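Suppose a colleague, Dr. K., hands you the sequence of a protein chain of 234 amino acids and asks what its three-dimensional shape might be. Before reaching for any lab equipment, you can write down a predicted structure in token form. Begin with the sequence itself:
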Amino acid sequence: MTDPIRLLVTIVEHGKGERITNLANAQHIHFNLLLHGRGTASSDILDMLGLGSTEKDVVVCALPRSSVKQMLHSVAEEMRLKRPGTGVAFSLPLSGINELIARIILDERKQQDQGSAQEEAADMGAEKHWLVLAVVNPGITDQVMAVAKEAGATGGTILHARGVGRENAEAFLGVSIQSEREIVAILCPRAKGPAIMQAVNASFGPKSGAKGIIFSLPVRDMMGIGVTAEESKP
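The predicted structure, expressed as tokens, is then:
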């Protein structure tokens, strides 16, 4: 593996998310999702965190780790994140991602992917749970969950999002991607994560009618679903 894939998450005021996706597209980062959210913290806490109003745009970009600092700098400059109340940006490692999608992301940055799947080799393996995310075309989330449950999942959450920069992504994938997307989020034990990802990818991957992008995030600390904070720690 030459360059692990990261997720760059930016939270800004509602209506400003497309400025970030424009920056991403200009840097040849084409796998982006724009979600609309609402903050629930008090205004004092939101101001302290630099999040301002409660209505939010959440932009999620998939990019090589080597590109994270440059993109963070561009976002910080464009959105003036050093000023209070303007927003926040951070990156997350992936514990797994479709091989095809990983190769495309790296090829866009003129990198060669030698692995069968992208995994964060360093700082991985200590987590006890994964968050598996399947980004698919609308209307098939029930089928996705059915396949995931057959592979060991116990349940999931459905989110609605809008893909941005999809024309460029379509050119690389050779498939048509709808602008409106749905996300199936599945929290599962780490031991079940690979099987769930493989099953969902086999039926709903990029070359299927779902045009799915499947990846996972390591979960280090967690409360609920039968575990305590102490039990969730490695």
